[in-house]
Structure formats: C-alpha cells, structure tokens
Fold this protein.
Amino acid sequence: MDSATTATQTKKAEDASASRESLTITDNRSGKSYEIPIKNGAIRAMDLRQIKVDPAEFGMMSYDPAYNNTASCISKITFIDGDAGILRYRGYPIEDLAEKSTYLETAYLLLHGELPTAAQLKEWTYSVTHHTFIHESIKKFLDGFHYDAHPMGMMISTIAALSTFYHDAKDIFDAESRRKQTYRLVGKMPTIAAFSYRHTLGMPFVYPDNELSYPGNFLNMLFRTTEAKYRPNPTLEHALDVLFILHADHEQNCSTNTIRGVGSSHVDPYSATAAAIAALYGPLHGGANEEVLHMLLEIGTVQKVPEFIKRVKAGEVKLMGFGHRVYKHYDPRARIIKKVAYEVFELMGKNPLLEIALECERIALEDEYFIKRKLYPNVDFYTGLIYQSMGFPISMFPVLFAIPRTSGWIAQWQEMLLDPEQKIARPRQIYLGHDTRQYVPMDQRG
Ligand code: ACO
C-alpha cells in the first residue's frame, strides 16, 4: 500500500470517528432527523434552531431557567469539579495557592493567566498599591450616607460613582485603559470598604499606608486609631490574605454572570463591577455569610440545634451556608477555611458560636435530608465566624467577599470582552402571556 492510500484511509477513519462526535435528534412531530455536532461535550443551542415543523416557525430553543445546564461562555480562568470537590485557578489547585501564594499574586494569576515573575509581581504590587487613594470628592460622597447604611449598599453606589471620575474607563477595547482601571479597582476596593466601615462608626477615615501588604493595609484603614504607625497582627493579616485567595474567583456564579452580562453592553468596568457587587449582596450568594451569623445567633445554644434542623427539614427555613449549585460534595474552600478559623481562634479566643456551627454540621452531615440533597457546608459557613472573631461587624462580611472577588470579576469581564464569539447578552423567552387584545377604555374596566 502506498503512502497516499494510507493517508486517504487515515483521513476517512478520522472523518468517521469525528462524525461520531455528534447527536442525532429525531423530531417526532415531523419524523425528521438532525445531526448536531458535539464539541467540548456540548452542543450549540443555535444548532437547534434548524429544528422546525413549518419553515415559517422560529425554530427549537432550549429552556433553562437559572442556567442549570447551559454554558454561557468558554473560559480558561477557573475550573471546578463539583462532584470531586476540585477548584483550580488557571490550573493551580486552590489548596496550593492558599498555602503558597498571596492574594495579590493570585489576582495577577487570574488576570494574566500565569504566575508572575519576581519583577512582574513587584511592578503589579507597586501599581496596585499606588492606586489605593481615592479622590477627596468620593469622601464627601460617602459622607452623604446615613450612619446606619449597609456597607454593601455604599460599595455598590461608590464603585458605580468611580465611573464619573475616570472617563478613560469607557475605552474598554484599549488594553492600557483596561490595565489602569484594573489597578484602580483592585487598589481602591479595600479603601472604599474601609471608609464605608469608618463612616458607619462616625470615625475619621484612615488613609492607605503604602508600606503595608494588601490585607495589612486594609486592616490599617479599618482599625487604626491613635497609633503613629499601624502594625497588623501577622496571624490576622495572613488569615485575611488566605480568605482573599479563596474568594478571588469561582467561575460562572451569579455575580460573575452579572459582570459578564452587564459588561456585554460595553459599559465601563466600574458600572459593571457595581452590578456584580449588587448580585453578590443577595443572601443566596455573597450575603450568605451574614445570614449564617444571624442564623447561629438565632439558634443561640447547641441544645437548640436539633429543633432548628427540624424547621429546616420542614422547609420553614434554610440552613444558611449549606448547599451549592455546583459542589455536590464538600466545598474545598470550606475545608481550608476551617483550618484558618482555628488559627484565628487560637489568637482571639474561640468564637462562642463555633460549637453551634459544628453541631449544625455534625447533624446535617449524618441526616438523610441533607445527604439525599447533597448539601454540604459551603465557603460561607465558617467565614462569618472568623470575620466576627477578627472584629468585623456582621454587615461587613459580604464586603470582605467583594474585595477579593474584584480580581476574578475583572479577569472574567476582560475574557468576555476579548472573546470574538461574545455579543450583547440577550436570552430568549417562552411567551405564554395574552395574545393580542383590544385596548379597554377606563370606564369599561371591571
Ligand atoms: N437548607 C435547606 N435545604 C436546602 C438548602 C439549604 N441551605 N439548599 C438547598 N436546599 C434544598 C432545596 O430546598 C431543595 O430541596 P427539594 O429538592 O426538596 O426542593 C434541594 O435542596 C435543592 O436545592 P436547590 O435550591 O434546587 O439548589 P440550587 O442549586 O438552586 O441552590 C443555593 C443553591 C442557592 C446555594 C442553595 O443551596 C441555598 O440557598 N443555600 C443557602 C444559601 C447559601 O449558603 N448561599 C451561598 C452559596 S455559596 C456562594 O454563593 C458564595
């Protein structure tokens, strides 16, 4: 057999095997069959459109409320295997990053795709650190909030307001502009968060200290009082850094889907980030850590846990901090967080709510209701206890989530912008409302 014949046969075999990467759908209404290609384990929803009984029809759609089984993008940022409890940023296991990296290095990894060299990290750290100050007018803006304003509400508004200060942010297809807004967003989030906190206490704002680390400076802006130089406690500084790493990204969750969706209209990144913070604020997402604390306080004592679990099983309340759309096994972040919690408790004393949390977890992990539904502690179950022991008020918990998630949001926003397949996000609907009706004048309405 000559080489040309072999090549032809190989090509045929390849074609045959390639052609098996498809789905054959038979429309029982018409008896027609359609071959839909499979790529990366998925079919393209647009390939369904050819399925129609009448040529004048719109064509078949898929119906997927809450995107339970719809991939909205191709991404190279974060990988999750919910069944195996795996989380990786750009291929690096979360456990390794939590142990060996820092938040700023991890943020660089998410945004650039690779771990930085020493020189790159130095430049990145310098640039973020030198964008931590905020315009004095933003301080006046913050002053306008009521003393008991929720800091997440203040964050949403203030981050949106940044778009009015940086007009160059509209140049979203200019790489230099995106880089600048990234420094500003990652740099200013802790400052705005800390200023929001100080405002609610009626305490003077503390300006950033460029000599401190990212989490160390945040602690300085939050807690400094009369010290000439604030020195963060290394255990708390490290704990916060690890928590920031664990919260930096989590692929297509509600707030990330929001920044991609809002950003797809080509609005500036401050407005898109404000929308993402709003999505995170909800109790089913980043607001869950706040809800966990309220729940533990409501339970009150270890003895009352069984009674509370009974109410959960009766569908009266949720066990906040439990369950996840993707993880149907232990959330790998929760495991790392439990370790961090003990380090903080060793320094600050055990949080009295810990016993209640442990009892909830113990009962839930043995109970048929939770086992059957694959409900395990998620990232938010223990973070609240740590934050509380570190001295944060409960309302600041979701803010502590929003700060590190900013790097993930911006990485995802940028990936969406540069993806030639992405367009303005615009889902379809199945309309089941009225057909045309005649306008009814006011005096004839029932
Ligand atoms: N407590 C009690 N029951 C629960 C809980 C919970 N925390 N979570 C889910 N369930 C039950 C549901 O009632 C449902 O039961 P059913 O099949 O009898 O109707 C079943 O488990 C499946 O739940 P879904 O709501 O379909 O799961 P979904 O994937 O839509 O929701 C979510 C995931 C929102 C996280 C949910 O588990 C929840 O509300 N948890 C509490 C809030 C929370 O901790 N959120 C933080 C998530 S992590 C993050 O965003 C950072």
Notes: Residues 264 and 424 are 5 Å apart (CA to CA). The longest helix spans residues 175-201. The chain is about 50% helix and 5% strand. The chain has a mean pLDDT of 94.
